[in-house]
Structures are given as C-alpha cells and as structure tokens.
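User: Predict the structure for this protein chain, please.
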Amino acid sequence: MKNLILEMEEYAKEKNVPIMEKDGIAFLMKFIKANNIKNVLEIGSAIGYSAILMASSNPDVKVTTIEKDEVNYLECLKNVKKCGFEQKVNVVFQDALELNLAEGTQFDLIFIDAAKGQYIKFFEKYKYFLAPHGTIITDNIHFHGYVGKKETIESKNLKQLVTKIENYIEFLKTNEEFDTRFYDVGDGLSVSVRKNEK
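Assistant: Here is the predicted structure, written as structure tokens:
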C-alpha cells in the first residue's frame, strides 16, 4: 500500500495530475476516523489517490468516486485494483453534473475536488444526497495562494477561475442552510454542516 501511494505521488508529479496535498489528505483521514464515517462520495477522482487513502482510513469505509476524464478514470481503476480495494472503492466514469444517483442514496461525507469553476453547482446538486448530520468538505479553497490576491495574476483564465472560487467561498459564508468552517490545511479546506443538525 505504502509503495503504491508513493508510485501515485510520483505519477502525479510526472504527468502533472493534481492530487491532494499531504496535510489535506491527513486532515480528511483523521476526520473520517473521528466521525465514524462509513460512506463517502468524492467528486473528482483523478488517479484515485484521495479515494484510496480515504478508504484505507477505516475498515468500514466505502467510497464512491466520480471522474469524467478517461485517462484518469482508467488510472484510478488500475490503482484501486492494485491495492485490492475493488469492494471498498466504486469508480464511476461520468461527468458529476450529469450523473443521476438513485433516489434515497445517502453519504456521510461528500468531498468536492473537481472542476473549481463548478463548485457551487456540485454543492447544490449533491447536498440532497447528504445523510443527516453529514458533512460536505471542499478542497483548494486557497487555490495555490491566489485566492484573495487576484491583482497579482496576469492570466485572464486563472483570474476567472480564482473569481469563481472566491464566489464559492462567499456562497458558503452566506449560505442559510449550512454552517461552514475554513481550515488553512493543505491547499485550504472548507467543512460545511447543515445548521439544524449541529
């Protein structure tokens, strides 16, 4: 398992595939253990790095992870198989915004780590599949230190992306349904819980 994780980190570096920062994934694994989470939905598998580590954090955890990029999806499947997690990690090849989950499907934790510009849409679509007392965690809230420092960005596309993340942060801060806490861990994480269930 340890070797596979190192292999995946190496692959991500070589192929320029974004995976979670170590502090961020450590936070997630600790959160899963501490809150006895059994069922995780991950939006954005990449090569399966965070899905495999989340699944390994507790014997009872099952992870459903969604990926729309075929190369990443196949790499993710390969990695899940390598560590023998076929029963623990279900990899879905689909655009998360087009996927229709079965009615009544519920997750204790929904982890958003896909297209940054779609964060609000992911949140709004999948909050209906959150179990009572469940949590939605989002990665890359700092986005490599660019959030809050737009004036330093020259690229128009990057500026637009950072604006979308800043809009998402504002959306979380003013959300009447959820209470959100922000953590300076990894690339920045937000942890959202329904207000009436705290």
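The chain has one domain: 2-141.
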